[in-house]
Amino acid sequence: MYKSSFPKEFPKEFLWGGATAANQIEGAWNVDGKGLTTAEVVRKADDRKKMSMNVVDAKSIKEATNDLTTVNYPKRRGVDFYHHYKEDIKLFAEMGFKVFRFSIAWARIFPQGDEQQANEKGLAFYDRVLDELEKYNIEPLITLSHYEMPLALTQKQNGWLDRRTIADFTHYTEVVFKHYRGRVRYWLSFNEINTGTWGFHETGVVDSHLKKQEQENVRYQALHHQLVASAIATKQLHEIDPEAKMGCMLARMQTYSATCKPEDVRAAQLEDQKNLFFTDVQARGEYPEFMNRYFSENGIQIKMAAHDQQVLAESPVDFVSFSYYMTTVTSAIAEEEVNGNMSTGGRNKYLEESDWGWQIDPVGLRITLNEMWDRYRKPLFIVENGLGALDKLESGKIHDDYRINYLRKHIEQMKQAIKDGVQLMGYTMWGPIDLISFSTSEMSKRYGFIYVDQDDEGNGSLKRIKKDSFYWYKKVILSNGEDLA
């Protein structure tokens, strides 16, 4: 007789931690030879509930490069992790972090993006970060490209639209793989690669002057070059450091059908397929048939080199990672839209919303974990999940029960997914320390367990203050996810 059995708790080796990005925390934008990045020429948003960000074109880039301040470009200042990294990592260690996700700023290593010789001061900075992590036995999880690339590559060759950028990127990855060999077990290629369909911030391609169909063609062409570069980097890593693992990273936007009307169900399926397409290529090694049809029917022509398909097939990723903030609703007929994490969809009347209009759906995390496990059968890693909120500093303390409640509900659903049989490697909540918001470039949208004394204009002491959630997450990690009270 068949006897069922299933895991009942988080695995002992589960990787608890937090996630950041260089362009949102480091600051020191013009220090030690670093070049200007694409993230540092995007002006701060005017409306916190609009996720479209400001348009980047040749004119705005010229204005940004002539402006040597951080007033309109807060990502240039971050929260000065560049000079506070020892203090910050010590705080992460106090919480019990098993892993810390951060990104390498490509322009710290190659300021122009295409030099032959690396900037030694840039390599040395990340050596120092790794030294601190090793002191506390914290695993690094490094993203190679997190919404920033050397701006010079946009100016010279329009970013990832030019195939030469593949060689520039893979020269960079070869250098960092060799330099940090044996010190980093887990790598990610491109952060939320699917958001490249929204344009400049992910691809470095200036295309705002093009018509919609031309834009779509350009963006998928640039993304094809990224997919090829990701496969080459994966092969490099396996050859240079065989013990290390490469993952892909998706902005997961689980899509619900607005009704059970078949046309709505089909529309939701199409949205989900377009979301998962990128992970399909990186995890399975080939373009799925449904996207080939989509390209054909929408006049999208992707130029491939003769060996591209073979490159993709030979080097699929070792694990699949994703961000999860919200779900969306899709119908065959456009309805009221909700913005969030570069995503728009119909409003779900059953869900609450954050101060920024992002709909909160913990059960959706369990749903997407099951669907992605069934689809890929590769280890999964939740590398972003969190709540941006308006925290208040009261008598030197921050009482953020709303954040604790949000995280508790999502971790409970993670545990249910593990019981369902999902192989989940770890969880790095987004923004363990307050940082500059990606979408709006403001400080007011705070995610962290650690408060940073800095306002939207950059005023403040940069003092780090533990929130109530700091002590709660410490308890969660110590109990390996058992004590969520």
Automatic annotation (TrEMBL):
PROSITE patterns: GLYCOSYL_HYDROL_F1_1, GLYCOSYL_HYDROL_F1_2. GO terms for biological process: carbohydrate catabolic process. The active site is at E384 (nucleophile). One of its GO terms (molecular function) is beta-glucosidase activity. GO terms for cellular component: cytosol. Keywords: Glycosidase, Hydrolase. It comes from the Bacteria. Transmembrane segments: none annotated. InterPro entries: GH, GH_1_N_CS, Glyco_hydro_1, Glyco_hydro_1_AS. PANTHER family: 6-PHOSPHO-BETA-GLUCOSIDASE ASCB-RELATED, GLYCOSYL HYDROLASE. Belongs to the glycosyl hydrolase 1 family. This is Beta-glucosidase. It comes from Liquorilactobacillus hordei DSM 19519. The lineage of its organism: Bacteria, Bacillati, Bacillota, Bacilli, Lactobacillales.
